Amino acid sequence: MLARFAIAALAVFASFGVAAAQDGGKVKVVASFSIIADVVRHVGGERVAVTSLVAPNADAHVFSPAPADARIVGEADLIVVNGLGFEGWLDRLVKASGSKAPVVIATRGIKAIKTEEDHGHGHKHGHGHQHGHKHGHKKSSKHDHDHGPSDPHAWQSVRNVMVYATNVRDALIAADPDGKDAYEANARAYLGDLEALDREVRDAIAKIPEDARRVVTNHDAFAYFAAEYGLQFMAVHGLASEAQASAKDVARIIAQVRKHKIRAVFLENISDERQVRRIAKETGARIGGTLYSDALTGRDGPAPTYIDMIRHNLRTLQSALMS
Question: Domains of the chain by range and CATH?
Answer without folding.
Answer: 2-111+151-195 (3.40.50.1980), 123-140+208-321 (3.40.50.1980)
